[in-house]
Amino acid sequence: MAAPAALQRSVVFPAGRHTASLIFLHGSGDTGQGARAWIKQILNQDMAFQHIKVIYPTAPTRPYTPMKGALSTVWFDRYKISNDCPEHIESIDSMCRRLTDLINDEIKNDIAKNRILIGGFSMGGGMAMHLAYRFHQDLAGVFALSSFLNKDSAVYQALKKNESVLPELFQCHGTADELVLYSWGEETNKMLKSLGVPTSLHTFPNLNHELSRTEIEKLKTWIIKKLPVEATNE
Questions:
Q1: 30 an active-site residue?
Q2: Among 214, 150, 142, 201, residue whose Cα is nearest residue 173
Q3: CA-to-CA distance for 147 and 179, rounded, in angstroms?
Q4: What is the C-alpha separation between 136 and 43, in angstroms, rounded?
Q5: Per residue in 167-213, pLDDT tens?
Q6: Distance between CA atoms of 128 and 99, rounded to whole angstroms?
Q7: Catalytic site residue from 10, 146, 153, 177
Q8: Is 200 a residue of the active site?
Q9: How far, rounded to the nearest angstrom, does the alpha carbon of residue 34 sit from its chain's CA centroid?
Q10: Which residues lie closer than 8 Å to 98 by C-beta, 6 or more apart?
């Protein structure tokens, strides 16, 4: 069987020498281009860095059960939008393989794995947690904005057996979120912390299922902390 085509992506190139990469995974039904435009609208400019390439891939179209099987750009399927049901592990694992190809593309460009961050909004953040904590524990860090993991997530099962140092999780969630409840995000944070993940949870009062400027500015500060400019060896 032919390998699946590479994921489409929208890329913000660094202003200077490329020494680190950031992968931002959009929420369900969005695209890489859409996520980039949304952040650009909030900041009045692209989220851009001197040395970090920002990659916004687009999820392939697939039937999505919460939309009665209608086609949507989603990273994986869900039986329902709830933290209290099994995960659709087959679709999650298949996408982990596709996104591993994206990580490997950066490594081929001479970017060390500990100079790559991955995260996203909503479903994108959930996808990033599966990818990093189950398959790529040597990444620089993970961020999850308005995201959650199901109660018996495969991520928790994997971490119960883990002995290595884990990438830090930067999590943000609005208390007024009606789609992904704040309590689901909080529970995810507590579970990951109890399993050895260094985590922070930034709470945004009155924020619904959306991004805010303060949140993205906080995220940018954290990104620079995890992926500092490297001293040039000249």
A1: no
A2: 201
A3: 10
A4: 30
A5: 999 999 999 999 999 999 999 999 999 999 999 999 999 999 999 99
A6: 9
A7: 177
A8: no
A9: 15
A10: 4, 7, 60
